[in-house]
Write a structure and sequence with these properties.
alpha/beta; 2 domains; ABC_Transporter_SBP; ABC_transptr_periplasmic_BD
Length: 295
């Protein structure tokens, strides 16, 4: 009798422990929905290039079975099946790939398409990275969903260490007025609610259009000239320096032109909420520091 009881209790404990281990995957996404999983996911589809990078940073890249166009980093992402563009999703293709988790971009993906995926029974985790310092928490949540927390820990620690180093080095420097140029025609910049603004602030810069709350607001040449930035930093379509950056030389009295403080940084390093944003931040901080010494 004693032996039977011991075996029974042992089996019961094992069953409870196993049940507990596979019932604690619970995350609240950025839309306020609670995602509850009986076990970590194994097949993931990402609906934004930045989210693809975050999945890899979370150590779950080998679980990706589909991505959207322009998911080009890390290089192995290029070979994954394409399920459309971030703004035009191929729902049929998504269903064919049988994901147990779809990672969607709240402000970038079509809301109707995302809602339809939920109606079709897919588990959808909605992410909306907004602040530079929030990137580690997004990596951590994705890692919990995928059961890859141990792998993600290194990426999280590295990001936090680099971020703290930059903040310590540049946080108390004299402010430098920065104009960040996304595009030339129309003239597009970064407002105060964007990743680029966070990076400018981290580097001890002051975004001359910080008060604008729209994403990628359009501005005029006259508005830039009136605010007389001491540094102009531009990104184009790729890693090459955009030719239109030199158009500012038409105004030799502009502070950034007079001091030759015209810089370019590849857009993927400044416009995606991923760990690579700190690579862009390191370049921007170095550019601003170089300009600061000339003022």
């Amino acid at each position: 009798m004693k032996t039977f009881r011991t075996i029974f209790l042992s089996q019961l404990f094992s069953l409870v422990a196993t049940s507990y281990a596979y019932s604690i995957v619970e995350i609240i996404d950025d839309a306020g929905s609670t995602i509850v999983l009986s076990q970590p996911v194994e097949r993931i589809i990402s609906l934004a290039p930045s989210l693809t990078e975050l999945v890899y940073a979370a150590g779950a890249g080998d679980k990706l079975v589909g991505v959207v166009e322009y998911s080009d980093y890390p290089p192995q992402a290029i070979d994954l099946p394409i399920v459309g563009r971030f703004d035009s999703l191929n729902l049929e293709r998504i269903l064919q790939l049988k994901p147990d988790l779809v990672v969607a971009w709240q402000s970038g993906n079509p809301r109707a398409s995302v809602a339809r995926l939920k109606q079709l029974g897919l588990t959808v985790y909605i992410a909306e990275p907004k602040k530079l310092e929030s990137i580690p928490s997004h990596i951590e949540k994705l890692a919990v969903l995928a059961g890859t927390e141990a792998t993600a820990a290194d990426a999280i620690n590295q990001f936090q260490t680099t971020y703290s180093t930059l903040l310590t080095e540049y946080g108390d420097k004299p402010l430098v007025k920065i104009f960040y140029q996304v595009w030339d025609a129309p003239l597009i910049t970064s407002g105060g609610n964007e990743l680029i603004n966070d990076i400018i602030s981290l580097c001890g810069g002051s975004n001359i259009f910080e008060e604008l709350k729209l994403v990628a607001p359009k501005v005029s040449d006259e508005a830039v000239l009136a605010r007389d930035p001491e540094v102009i930093i531009a990104s184009g379509m790729d890693i090459e320096r955009p030719e239109w950056l030199d158009d500012w030389k038409k105004w030799p009295n502009l502070g950034a032109v007079a001091k030759n403080n015209l810089f370019s940084i590849p857009p993927d390093l400044l416009q995606r909420h991923t760990p690579r944003a700190l690579i862009g931040a390191q370049q921007m901080c170095a550019n601003i520091e170089s300009a600061r010494s000339s003022l």
